[in-house]
Structure formats: structure tokens, C-alpha cells
Amino acid sequence: MGYRIYHSDAFVLSFTPRREADGAVDLFTRTHGRLQALAQSARLERSKLRYALQPFTRARVALVRGRAQWRVTGAHARENPLMDDALDAEMRLLVRRVWHVMARLVRGEMPLPALFSLMEHFYDALAPAATCAAHRKVLERFTLYLMCAHLGYAGKESIPSLAWLFQEEHPLAPAALARGVPHCRALTQRINAALAESHL
Predict the structure, then answer these.
(1) Which region holds residue 107: left if phi is over 0, alpha if psi is between -120 and 50, else beta?
(2) Are 190 and 125 members of one domain?
């Protein structure tokens, strides 16, 4: 009996070399949440997986669940902000910080569709926010605040003046970021408290 192939949108959190040509990939997927998978021969020059599995890439992946672990059988890269010449070093560092927090808070396989959608909004918001220093700060804080809320580490009413944020279809759009500028200090305090309470 053949293995079932699962197709999913995903973000690549990390890629660790294994053996001579393989790689261990840490993925945050729309369908299964966070998982680790083996990418066989992904480090070979001719491999179609090689460039699609670079850290922080948003990709479409094909996965097979083996007896002992997941395997990546296909991947198509959509974008990687660390390879976008339009984003400066500060924005690339912002991307790394956000994913670092996400990796701390999300453990194990469990679909988290709201959080996955948030990270899609985050990637879509990077280029527009890059042109405004104030919007950069709010983008990072809004993303982390909403992340903590989706994972249960911050209540939706923990900052009453930002209750509207959870009703926004596009919470990281430029108009929303502009409304968030006066709340940066409150956001920072609430995010730090949530991370401390998580004990992770």
C-alpha cells in the first residue's frame, strides 16, 4: 500500500544538514502545525528541494508520513524575506526575532490555522511597513501580541484600547499599524508579561 501525500502551505523554520546530502527540516504547516521532516538529497546541487527549504521561506510542500518520521517529497518556494533586496538588515532581523518567539511558543504537531494566517499577514506586511520606522515597530509588536493571544498567553481584552485589532480582517495592514503607534509601550509590556508567563 502506498503512502498518502499531504500537500500544505508551510514556513521553513530551520534546515539542519544530515548525513552527506540530506537535511532535517523544521516546518510550520497550515495542515499539521509544527513538524520535523527529513528531506532526502536536499543538499545536492541538482535537488529541487535545495532552495525551497531555506530557513524563513514560505513554500508549498508535499509530505509523506513514514513509520518513524515525516519526509518532504516536494517543495516550491513562494518567497523568502531574507533574500528580498527590498528589505534592509533591520527588517530581516525583525523577521528572525518574530520567528524565534514563535519557535519558543509552538511545540508539537497541532493545526493552528489562525496563527498560520497571522504569519501570512506578517509576510505580506513586511514590504509596506519597511518604509516607515514607526510602522516597523508596530508590525513586530502587533504580530507578537496576536501570536500570544492565539496561543492563549494573552487575553483579547488584556489591552482594552486594542480590542478592535481582533476584529480586523487584515490586522497588519498599513492603516491598522498607523492606529497602533500610540500603543507600542503597552504592547511591549503585555508581550513581555505573556512570554514570562509561558515559562518557555
Answers:
(1) beta
(2) yes
Report the domain count for the chain.
2
Last residue in a domain, options 29, 49, 79? 79
CA distance 90 to 83: 13
3 — pLDDT class (breaks 50, 70, 90): confident
- Write the CA distances from 11 to 32, 76, 78, 157, 172, integer angstroms: 12, 11, 10, 29, 18
Q: Provide the residue range defining the domain that includes 34.
A: 5-79
In residues, how long is the chain?
200
Reported pTM: 0.94
Q: Which three cell numbers stand for residue 66?
A: 513514514
Verify that 99 and 185 share a domain, yes or no: yes
31-47 pLDDT, tens digit per residue, is 999 999 999 998 988 89
